[in-house]
Amino acid sequence: MRKTILKWFILTALFAYATAVTIWAHGEASRHACQGIEVVIASAKSVDSVTINGVKEELLKFPKKIEGTAIERINTMEIENYLSRYSNFENVECALTTNGMLSVSVVPMIPEIRVFEPDKSYYINKDGKRIESKANFFVDVPVVSGNFSETFPARNVLPVTRFIQNDPVLRQLVGMVEAKSPSDIMLVPRIHGHVVNFGDTSRLGEKRNALLTFYRKVIPYKGWEEYDTISVKFKGQIVATRRNKTANAHSAGFEEEIDLEEATLPSEAFSREQTNGTAP
Prior knowledge:
By secondary structure, this protein is α/β, with parallel strands linked by helices. Helix content is about 30%, strand content about 25%. It has helices spanning about 1-30, 50-60, 75-85, 160-165, 170-175, 205-215, 220; strands at about 35-40, 90-95, 100-110, 115, 120-125, 130, 145, 175-180, 185-190, 195, 225-230, 235-240, 255-260.
């Protein structure tokens, strides 16, 4: 009997303590205001100041004031839902800390390329998922332009942009990619002069070697602006279209075709002018 009474006494005391703590916490919350917002980027290897500042800027537009508001009046679920509207985040979690701060933990969507279409612009991630191109979440990634569709989505260009980013020479050379069609993916060099038709996403290493062969063996003698288009899309050859078409107006065509084996010969092999639209 004595043990039963003691047990109930302890339980009653614990319940009273819990109630008192809850009432005290509620009173403290009503008297204390949110001291500020701290943003944590989950799984980040380094400080992502762009995303942190972007989150804080978005919370300044939140319909209800956060900083300076009594903690008991802050609804963390509402804030999570507000930030989750944006495609820039995979996940958002909010919590109030013991020191009166609103802690916002976000898992950002990692963009891989920036896409420009005639009437819109957006990012896509590694899976091709679109990410809104908000100014306060600007990320420096490769740029791709084109008229994309369901049959030719922007993600189809990712093999080319990844290849460029992983190649130290092409990464320095290429300023942007222009996708005219699935079989005509153009590389636009940072130096003004010509564009490079890389064709489709196949044989990327072979095309890269062909282009660099052309740059080593032809460009030093012909000049950077001799051609308006250099095509390496065809297997085993380089086709260069001259910029000045009037020089060969008597010819049936204006394309100079350079065999890859010939491109490795001394530069004298390229000093001959074409007479019928195709180099010998």
